[in-house]
Write a structure and sequence with these properties.
Largest sheet: 6 strands, antiparallel
Radius of gyration: 15 Å
Helix content: 10-25%
Number of helices: 2
Distance between the termini: 17 Å
Number of strands: 10
Order of helices and strands: EHHEEEEEEEEE
Length: 146
């Protein structure tokens, strides 16, 4: 199993959209920098949240990264904010996704009637940047990035 997603701006997108996509990528990179053996899951979320707030955007709290293995969504949950409940230690060989999902106007998202599609509650723009990685003693091994 693997999981990945990247938001792209098509055509003459808005400046806000371009800034949002760039912020999601930076938040991912910052999170990867703390995804090391011995750190805790909430440190990943703290790194994402710090970058997103610094850029004036919002983390969508209802959506998060996750463990991945024999099924696509396994423990641990990997929130995009410093959630103290995400206190699991990162261990060698753990495979997770880090997926900053951020919005331009607020942190609230709602589930559409189809039971799958999520959208921002205020219909503001959102961006998502996700890759699957394996935790190691050094830099994590990115499994879905070229």
């Amino acid at each position: 199993m693997a999981d990945a997603a990247e938001t792209v701006v098509i055509g003459n997108g808005s400046l806000i959209g371009e800034r949002l996509v760039a912020c999601a990528q930076r938040a991912f990179e910052r999170a990867v920098s703390v995804a090391r053996v011995g750190n805790r899951v909430y440190q990943i979320g703290g790194a994402v949240e710090a970058e997103v707030r610094k850029s004036g955007f919002f983390v969508v709290h209802q959506l998060c990264g996750h463990g991945i293995g024999r099924t696509i969504h396994e423990e641990p949950s990997v929130p995009n904010f410093a959630d103290p409940r995400a206190s699991q230690m990162l261990t060698e060989g753990l495979v997770i996704t880090i997926e900053p999902i951020i919005a331009s106007q607020s942190s609230r998202a709602i589930l559409a009637r189809d039971g799958w599609t999520m959208r921002t509650a205020d219909r503001g723009l959102a961006a998502h940047h996700e890759h699957t990685l394996m935790i190691t003693a050094g830099e994590p091994l990115l499994l879905t990035a070229a």
